[in-house]
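Quick one, tokens below. Sequence please?
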């Protein structure tokens, strides 16, 4: 039973939920002043937020200069009436069935005559004192908010004699209904307190001169709605709203019952799109009745969401041409929305707002995976708007390029792949889009030539003047000094030479054993060159020092040990192939060793080295 009841409730609630979901978005309206003092030049700026261009009206004063600020925001100027007594301006904004309203207190300005030295208090404000005149009385200028009837001065209450004003305002969703047309018009009445606050549950009475008027219901505090049904053939018709407890609170509005056929307004544009900064965009407006006859008794008003509406040019009767200045910067807008209203007629057109042709392009690069480089290309028109008018085309002198891939409005990605082998330090990539062109110099970073630090162990043989000795070494290299191919190498090497000989002859022959050990420390600028995708050639040329230790022994005599530091120079060439994280290599090296000037070892010499090793790319 409970489940059935719940289902019934949901079924009955569905139409209500659908109605609420379809309700129009509300309109908000505010003023830059909480209270407007009625002095010469007084005015208030109105801000309206609405999904579409609103229609503005007020019970007193007038509203002018309605303009769009973009993104559903509008601005207008409210001018108060000439009368300077206090009252309340009820300002209403409508767009379709949506509405918004604002009660703006209008504070009266005037003068009162009091005794010399006296002050006047109105609410929480005090005025005076002022200097007295020849008659001994002072004239004090005062500001009287609406709803205030008395002031205080010298402990006495002064009657201000402000006139009674209306606190109700009635509006219609349509002001023109053809005489041969039946229609239902939405009637709204707005009621406020004398101070300018929405009047909840106001004693409102609404009546119509003809047709059927539904009972008014309060849809929000101070706002009442009713439906007014008019039948064809009726003459002039009006609706009157009054507050039954205030004699002066009456508002009346009429509907024009034109005998002509139903009237319409046609808004036409001559092209589907317009480019940013493209000067002036023109559109045409025509007023016609149901028979196609032009009529010329309405003044059109136009607003746009972007750009500036420049005004109208009047043509033949019932014909107008509107002019819109197209903005240079689009700021994310993709549509030019033109809304024209005249009386109860309203038309809207949308024109695609597009950027101009490509005038400039910019390129940024970043290293991708491996040796490839990702190029981010941005194309804009002459005003800086992103544009896809001319997708970029790229060409490389040495490497290969993927086709541009669009990443967003005016943004493309181009992936550059370096050549398998080249001697150049960089590649020239030319990118064109429309009449714009950009040259990008891409540093060439080949596999194996992209490491910044390498470490090597090596060993082999040292050769000099027919003597051969063992050799071993270690090196560390730093790369990327101005180029991927240039670096600095620090090398440490150990090698020695031993010799056994006989000095003298016959019974005077003695055995001589000599041994020389060398520790060489050198530093040198280095160069490397990829050969294909795997091989690498290294070369270095530099200098350093060598520690020479000599040991000599003649027969059974004590050995003579000596040591010395001498200058050194070196040149090396090596060749390797990429395997795992580094390069097995073969090296040929020449080392100049200076004269140690030892008793058992003298003279400079140049040993040659043939070594094998493994050079590991650390990072």
């Amino acid at each position: 039973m409970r489940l059935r009841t719940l289902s019934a409730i949901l079924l009955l609630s569905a139409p209500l939920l659908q109605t609420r979901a379809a309700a129009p978005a509300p309109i908000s309206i505010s003023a830059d002043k909480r209270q407007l003092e009625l002095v010469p030049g007084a005015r208030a700026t109105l801000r309206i937020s609405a999904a579409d261009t609103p229609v503005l009206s007020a019970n007193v004063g007038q509203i002018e200069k309605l303009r769009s600020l973009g993104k559903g925001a509008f601005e207008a100027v409210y001018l108060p009436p000439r009368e300077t007594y206090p009252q309340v301006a009820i300002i209403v904004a409508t767009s379709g069935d949506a509405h918004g309203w604002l009660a703006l207190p209008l504070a009266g300005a005037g003068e009162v005559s009091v005794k010399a030295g006296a002050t006047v208090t109105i609410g929480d404000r005090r005025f005076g004192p002022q200097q007295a005149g020849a008659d001994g009385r002072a004239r004090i200028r005062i500001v009287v908010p609406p709803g205030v009837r008395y002031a205080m001065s010298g402990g006495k209450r002064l009657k201000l004699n402000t006139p009674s004003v209306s606190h109700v305002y009635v509006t219609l969703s349509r002001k023109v209904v053809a005489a041969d047309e039946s229609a239902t018009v939405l009637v709204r009445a707005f009621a406020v307190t004398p101070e300018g606050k929405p009047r909840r549950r106001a004693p409102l009475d609404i009546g119509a001169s003809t047709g059927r008027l539904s009972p008014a219901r309060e849809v929000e505090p101070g706002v009442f709605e009713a439906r007014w049904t008019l039948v064809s053939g009726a003459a002039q018709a009006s609706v009157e709203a009054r507050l039954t407890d205030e004699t002066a609170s009456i508002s009346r509005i009429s509907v024009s019952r034109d005998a002509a056929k139903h009237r319409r307004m046609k808004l036409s544009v001559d092209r589907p799109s317009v480019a940013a900064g493209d000067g002036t965009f023109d559109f045409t407006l025509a007023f016609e009745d149901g028979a196609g006859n032009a009529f010329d008794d309405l003044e059109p008003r136009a607003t746009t969401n972007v750009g500036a509406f420049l005004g109208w040019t009047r043509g033949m009767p019932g014909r107008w041409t509107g002019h819109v200045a197209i903005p240079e910067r689009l700021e994310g807008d993709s549509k030019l929305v033109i809304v024209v209203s005249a009386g109860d007629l309203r038309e809207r057109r949308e024109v695609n707002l597009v950027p101009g042709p490509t005038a400039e392009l910019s390129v940024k690069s970043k290293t991708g995976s491996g040796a490839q480089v990702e190029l981010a290309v941005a194309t804009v028109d002459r005003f800086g708007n992103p544009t896809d008018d001319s997708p970029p085309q790229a060409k490389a002198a040495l490497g290969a390029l993927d086709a541009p891939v669009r990443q967003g409005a005016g943004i493309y990605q181009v992936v550059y792949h370096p050549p398998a082998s080249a001697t150049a330090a960089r590649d020239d990539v030319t990118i064109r889009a429309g009449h714009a062109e950009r040259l990008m110099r891409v540093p060439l970073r080949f596999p194996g030539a992209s490491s910044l630090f390498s470490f090597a162990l090596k060993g082999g043989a040292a050769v000099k003047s027919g003597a051969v000795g063992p050799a071993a070494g270690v090196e560390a290299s730093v790369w990327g000094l101005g180029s991927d191919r240039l670096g600095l190498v620090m090398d440490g090497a150990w090698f020695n030479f031993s010799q056994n000989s006989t000095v003298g002859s016959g019974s005077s022959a003695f055995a001589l054993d000599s041994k020389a050990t060398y520790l060489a420390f050198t530093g040198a600028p280095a160069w490397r060159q990829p050969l294909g995708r795997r091989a690498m050639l290294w070369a270095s040329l530099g200098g350093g020092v060598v520690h020479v230790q000599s040991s000599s022994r003649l027969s059974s005599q004590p050995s003579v040990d000596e040591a010395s530091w001498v200058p050194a120079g070196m040149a090396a060439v090596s060749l390797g192939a990429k395997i795992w994280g580094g390069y097995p290599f073969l090296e040929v090296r020449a080392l100049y060793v200076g004269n140690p000037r030892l008793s058992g070892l003298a003279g400079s010499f140049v040993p040659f080295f043939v070594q094998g090793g493994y050079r590991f790319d650390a990072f």
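DSSP finds one helix and 45 strands in the chain. Residues 168-255 form a domain with the Immunoglobulin-like fold (CATH 2.60.40.10).
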